Amino acid sequence: MERETQTETSSSKGNTMRCTQATLEALGIFGVCPMTGAGVMSAMSKVYKTIPMDIEWNTGLADFVAAHQSGKYYIASKGHAMAVVDGKLTDTSYRNVTNRIKVVLAVKAETKTP
Length: 114
Description:
Largest sheet: 6 strands, mixed
Helix content: 10-25%
Radius of gyration: 13 Å
Strand order of the largest sheet: 1-5-4-3-6-2
Mean pLDDT: 87
Distance between the termini: 45 Å
Structural class: alpha+beta
Order of helices and strands: EHHEHEEEE
């Protein structure tokens, strides 16, 4: 049985956008539309302290979201970027949140301290 999670599937403007741009907007970074995950990381590192997370091999998307009910995270599955903010998934692909989708990268975004 799959877990039920809240999902955002588009921007607040109602426009279709790249998954990388939607991910950054969910994390509070606007005006950037990178083409790759490396571009997401570059934009994030200008605003946040980025902390790569150790994730278990074969971690399902629904399990990751359920386990991260607080904080900001950039996550990626094969060829796709998403964000989890306080347990809410932002995803432009309009897919169901299931454990068939595997998380291959997870990075926590924390406020930078001077």
